Amino acid sequence: MLEKIGQIDQQIFLYLNNNFHSDFFDPIMFLLTKTGPWIPLYIFLSYLILKTYKKDAWWVFMAVGLTILFADQTASGLMKPFFERLRPCHEPLLEGMVHNYGYCGGGKFGFASSHASNSFGVATIMTLTLAFRYPWLKWLFAWAVFFSYTRIYLGVHYPGDILVGAMVGILSAVLGYFIMKSIKERFFTKNPIH
């Protein structure tokens, strides 16, 4: 069963990786898979947190920090060394079949994707803490999908790596949010978190 799922995942990867790239977009996607270009977005989200929560913003930043810690450590610290699934660009059976641009990721194993876990974690925690005031923030899930897709485009992750990474990120955000909410409500009951 797992072998069949792995084969389907590989086939979907090869289809997406081989059919939707161009020399023009290669350097653009390589740039957009990095953290640097998204710093203005993170600054803007930080501004919204400060504007919405003012002196209580610390608790939201704590939830964001917990989300990223849980998401990143689960994907990179636990899952990658446990499952040891080679990235497509490191897979000998796919040699010559993978369109890989730039580099082959941060290590030889790719399950699950830290890019996906972190970006979906951020999208989820922002939705949980800010969407009551800014419903349009749900578009962050589109950003998380795009940010994660760059990893397939560049040949460093399978779709399954992305899907599981996204689930890890979402669960990490929910956990970070409820930890933050319980601390806030236990010690600062005047302004409960929405």
TrEMBL record:
Pfam family, one: PAP2
Protein keywords: Membrane, Transmembrane, Transmembrane helix
CDD domains for the chain: PAP2_like_4
Signal peptide (from-to): none
Residue ranges occupied by any Phosphatidic acid phosphatase type 2/haloperoxidase domain in the UniProt entry: 60-177
Transmembrane feature ranges: 28-50, 57-78, 115-132, 139-156, 162-180
InterPro entries tied to this protein: PAP2/HPO, PAP2/HPO_sf
Classification via PANTHER family: AT30094P (PTHR14969:SF13), SPHINGOSINE-1-PHOSPHATE PHOSPHOHYDROLASE (PTHR14969)
UniProt-recorded name of the protein: PAP2 superfamily protein
Organism: Cecembia lonarensis (strain CCUG 58316 / KCTC 22772 / LW9)
